[in-house]
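Page 42, continued from yesterday. The earlier attempt failed because a stray header line got pasted into the input along with the sequence. Redoing it now with the clean sequence only.
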Amino acid sequence: MVPPDSEDALFAHRHLTELTVEAEPWKAALSARRLIAANPDDDQGWALLALALTLLSHYQAAVRAYRRALALSPRNPWYAHNLGHLLDVALDRPNDGLALLQSAHRQEPQETEIASSYAHALGRVGKIEEARDLLRRSIRDGGNREQRALLAWLDEATAERQPVRRRKTRSTAPTEKAPRRKGRGA
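This time it went through. C-alpha cells are written below.
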C-alpha cells in the first residue's frame, strides 16, 4: 500500500484532479484538497481547487483559492486570467478583474482566450473602443462563436453610444393633430 502523502499518491491525486475536474468537480475538489494538505505551497493544487470550486458555483471560495495560487506563482498569466474572468463574469465585479486580465494579457498577448476575457471586462466598464480594438486584433482569423458574439455586443454598444443626428430635410407632409380625448369639450 502506498502512503497517502507519498510522491506516488500525490501524483495520482493531481492526475485524478486534472482528469475529473470538468465531469466531476466535487471529486476533483477532494483530490485537490489532498494535494494542498500535503503541500500548502502547491500553486497548481490551489488552481485546480479553484477551478473545481468555480464549476461547483462556489465563486467566493474559488476566488480565495485563485488568490492563493496567484500569490504562490505571481507570474502565472492563467491564474490571473481565471481569477479576473471569475470576478468579471461570475461575481459581476469587472473593475476588480480588470488589472488581473490586463496583466495576463501583457504576459500572453497572443492568447485569444485571455484577450477575449480582457475585452469583455473592458466593455463592461465602459471602455468599448479599447475593447473592440483589442478583440479585433486578437481574432483576425475569425475567432470562435463566443468571440464573434462578444465583438457583435461591443459593436452594438458602440452604435448605441453614437449621437443620433436629425435629418435636416423639411417634410412637406401635413402635420397630424393629436386626437381629442373624451371628456374634453368637443
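Notes: The chain has nine helices and no strands.
Reminder to self: strip header lines before submitting.
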